[in-house]
Write a structure and sequence with these properties.
Radius of gyration: 22 Å
CATH superfamily: Bacterial extracellular solute-binding protein, family 7
Distance between the termini: 78 Å
Bound molecules: (2S)-2-hydroxybutanedioic acid
Number of helices: 13
Shape: globular
Order of helices and strands: HEHEHEHHEEEHEHEHEEHHEHHH
CATH class: Alpha Beta
Number of strands: 11
CATH topology: D-Maltodextrin-Binding Protein, domain 2
Strand order of the largest sheet: 7-6-8-5-9-11
Length: 325
Amino acid sequence: MKLKHLLLAPLLALGLGAQAAPMVIKFSHVVADSTPKGQAALKFKELAEKKLPGKVQVQVFPNSQLFGDGKEMEALALGDVQLIAPSLSKFGKYTKQLGVFDLPFLFDDIQAVDRFQQSKEGLAMLSSMEKKGITGLGYLHNGMKQLSANKSLSNPGDAKGLKFRIQQSDVLEAQFRAVGSNPQKLAFSEVYQALQTGVVDGQENTWSNIYSKKFHEVQKFIMESNHGLVDYMVIANTKWWSGLPADIRKGLGEAMTEAIKFGNEAAFNESASFRSKVIADNKAKVLPMTKEQLAAWRKAMAPVWKQFEGEIGADLIAAAQKANK
Ligand code: LMR
């Protein structure tokens, strides 16, 4: 045997010549694959594995399959999942600032939300939770929320005494209290059953979430209120993210930027078609709202702004308002 082979043999026996197994990256979320978030997660998998061949393997878990609301943040902290994209309404334990996104009737439309997120103030919030172990990799859109219930809600007084499912947000709780209804914080995976069994009378969500989770099949009316939004921050565990080899972090960062762009385009372009599908199903009646009706809702919910101004920050609220044109 040649000397070279004699030296290589023990190395090969130790497996040092073999390629290392790819790093497994779990991306967990609570919605359907067809929604903007579902599509962005799958796009991220495709791009990350293409940019870092053999180095990473991305596993996407939709529909609360791996972790639902309430568990996913904890799982991220423990390293049981590497990427999640909770709704901006679900960060109350970590920062009060993101409550700005829940203020009722603040943003005129999703384009205004986008302008605010990309402003100096919006971008600063991505890194505002790093001391708590959360790194924001970007904002991802879903869309504006519509109100649904088993009763037509033309005027804010119609909501009095009704039970509404809300996300984990004190601002959203105050929003429904302002119109005399009873908000109940429930995980997204529990909403359909809660509506079906009458545990709650109504809820608020985007067209893609309503359609993909069939909420319109267990609600009589959907009011086109566009009174708030469901958007997301894609986050990673700070220690994990900053500890990644530089080439991997770079590749994943680029893949995420492109995936978010892809998801945002889906959010911009497909909201109307999800709305049409809800209407075509003819299960819940979709009710447009007049300017006067919307003004009455806006007025009834306006005290929520003052109530949370202290903890969100008046300057941040002003910056968000500036994003409306
Ligand atoms: C909800 O809980 O209604 C939403 O945050 C779900 C989601 O992730 O879109």
